[in-house]
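Shapes recur. One chain:

:::
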Amino acid sequence: MKIPLVASGGIADGRGLAAALALGAEGVNMGTRFCATTEAPIHQDIKDALIAAGERDTNLIFRTLHNTGRVLKNAVPDEVVALERRPGGCEFKDIHPLVAGARGRASLEIDDGQGLSHGL
């Protein structure tokens, strides 16, 4: 049985695709990069923020849950990071109210592609 390997996260251009293929991936999953296209049905302000953002404009959340995600800095991921850094860490039930519903969508709008996309 052969299981295909699909690389995901931080791939935003042909160089990233070529690197993933050279490392043995059979394909890639590019999410954020396609958000920054003229065809994407996303508000232009979000596209502009995505293009303008660099790596230092992001937070890594869910690290203590072993499901790390990179998101654009704003109040929601700042709260998540603070909870994860408290002594004893946290469980998902502690973070859930912050990342569910509208607040969750706000925190997860933009992720790994920051700094890799330079135009629509």
